[in-house]
Amino acid sequence: MRGRIFAAFVIFSAVVLALLWLSQTVFMDGLYKSVRLSELERCADSLAEADIRELEESAHSLSDKYNICITVYRIERGQGSAIVSAHIDGGCFIHNLTPETVHNDTLLTRLYKEALGSGTDGYMENVSLPGETDTDSFVGDILFSRVVTHGAVEYMLLFNTEIYPLDSTVSTMRMMLIYISVILVIIAAVMSVILAGRMSSPVRRMSREAARLALGDYSVSFDGGSVRELSELSDALNHAAVELSGLDRMQKDLIANVSHDLRTPLTLISGYSEVMRDIPGEMNAENMQMIIDETSRLTSMVNDMLDMSRFISGRYEFDMRPFSITEAVRESAERYSRLCASDGYVIDFECDADVSVIGDRASVIRVIYNLLGNAVSYTGEDKRVTVRQSVADGYCRIEVTDSGRGIPEDELPLIWERYYRGDSFHKRSVSGSGLGLSIVKNILAAHKARFGVRSKVGHGSTFWFELPLPFC
Ligand code: ADP
Fold first, then answer.
1. pTM, whole model, 2 decimals?
2. Average pLDDT score over residue span 419-437
3. Angle at CA of residue 6, ends 12 and 203, nearest 5°
């Protein structure tokens, strides 16, 4: 990571420097010349518009303002004579020329002809005096001419400026750029080390913690440091660790609960069988019934587990058709009532109308049985459970109310989870695997039913669900 960040910094610095270099050196000359040329054009415009009597004054002020040399020639009968001359300190190319006729084949003649020929301005660059080479001291000068007419008289405005200072500026800049490049590379190296350290050390720490988590150590704590993305990742991993540890605890609880619940009936069955085999006279109907009851309890527990796995894998099939829910609830309540009447339990059924709904009858009866089973298991001393059916707003509402210990508020969202079991003791007659309400939830969700629970600790609970009436 450190190497990559360093490489990214170096590439970034190199691109910035290359752009600076290009703009400062390669394009600088052209840019400077075009700026100078447009200044010369502006000067020519001003001087061309100036009154002929103020020509001298205008030329001097323009020369001072733009730091250029100006000469104005009056052209008469093919002869050019300088009438205005404004020059900067140190002189320049045109002020070292001797007066000449502009119609001869001289430098001034060429500028005159060029200005006339193009209809606009004459321009020359890197000029040298006749007989001198390009390397002479005046190389780098720009000459600019314009021919104007005042009355019947022609004038040639001649401007001269230097572009020498640019070379030294460019080489100074080159030096500066070299220094800046070195400084930038050093800064890039230092910053990449700091940044890489800030990013890679939390990543290393987190991967160490992840390895511990993979080995089942849920006490891990991920710390993403101050980098936002890493701290978000560490939050997610901490959350995952908490969830995993909960899942692990739940799984252990489940194995303990299920094995306990399975062992109890199995022990009873094997105990009673041995007694019936070994002790004469114990082979009676009562003992046989005990074995049958425990076997059916085992069967229903195993069926719950199988159904749950079908819900999870989406293989549970519902046979949806209209059926009388009033009749189904009444039958279930009566049957359950008969089943536990010997233990003193009373199940009341109240209903305001006979209605039908569309659904899987067997599954809805299963929901009622599960709710009744829990209500009987947890109801209070009065051993009363009430089942109520009411119709309102196009829904048939079923409520199962007990007068038991109630459910603490923080447990309410959890009771619908698979394998969740509250801390309360379970009475043997309905001891379950913590799957009952989860099965209820899955069945009701498949019927698009609304469902829920109202409960107050010490005052009992009311579990309810509402199925839509088909013809409302
Ligand atoms: P099980 O009854 O097999 O434990 P359930 O899924 O049916 O599993 O119920 C989950 C938990 O919800 C129970 O362990 C219990 O704590 C709580 N519970 C369910 N019904 C009632 C009730 N009527 N009164 C109090 N607690 C209840």
1. 0.49
2. 63
3. 125
